[in-house]
Amino acid sequence: MKIKTLADLKKVKADVQKKIKLREQSENAGNVVQVKVAMATCGIASGAKETMSFIIDELDFRGIDAVITQTGCMGYCYAEPTIEVTLPGKEPVVYGYVDKDKARQIIDEYIVKGELVDGIIPVNYKTIDE
Amino acid sequence: MKELSLHILDIVQNAITAQSDLIEVVVDENEKTDTYTITINDNGKGMDEEMIKKVTDPFFTSRTTRKVGVGISLFKQNAEQAGGHFSIDSKIGEGTKVRAVFQLSNIDRPIMGDIAGTMTLLIGANPDIRFIYTHKTGMGDFELDTKQVLEELEGVPISHPDILRSLKELITENLDMIAAKIT
Q1: Which ipTM did the prediction report?
Q2: Nearest CA in chain B to A7
Q3: Domain at A31-121, CATH from 2.40.170.20, 3.10.150.10, 3.30.565.10, 3.40.30.10
Q4: pTM (2 d.p.)
């Protein structure tokens, strides 16, 4: 069925409601992954829009509960598109040069297994003194 | 940036930074006047006269993370290269209107590109902002108001990927019906 009007959207709504209920009952409730995609001029010009669309679809396809939002420029314009990933209970990690392939690798290895992937930008590292 | 929809994505980010909760995007394709006009209106914090003069300078930005700000400059340059013009109206506390006019038939006018994907990405990432997207052609007008969408959804989050995919399809189908010049 093609969605052409807001009335058509109502039918999709019912399906989504069911999905949300199922997820709320699952064990993963509350364990939400946060992804922020840098979406300033530098990010957009480097393909941040495609990266973000891909992450939204891929995480949904794998049934991973996530909040995907946009953020501004962190000053790493040379490494755009950049994304910041926060796993539940962990410090945020920033990755650079995130095209679709890199995004898939980050989902496969970091988001799913918790193993860090090459290409981290040390934005929020802490020294031993802190 | 090769697509006008990417400029829209970029300028809307400015509106979001300006703390707007209503952002209107209007695309007007006018064959009679041979113009392709993009207007982005917001109700954010606005700018004073001095700042309006400075924002088209690529070496001005309000950011502290870098020293250049080329978003508006590039949009302006693209409009002027395609036989058009560019303007910004803004008032402190009221909002900002950015308008880029392109010559519709100009060979240097970039294509609109994936406007459906751009709008749904913006809507999904900013569910608390009301977006009104209007696209006018000689064959009719299409309008999508997220306030109406939220009413239809009755509490189901607009940022859910299934809803966003449906919205993208809705936009694509409707733009097709009014024969919007996307590519």
Answers
A1: 0.88
A2: B152
A3: 3.40.30.10
A4: 0.91
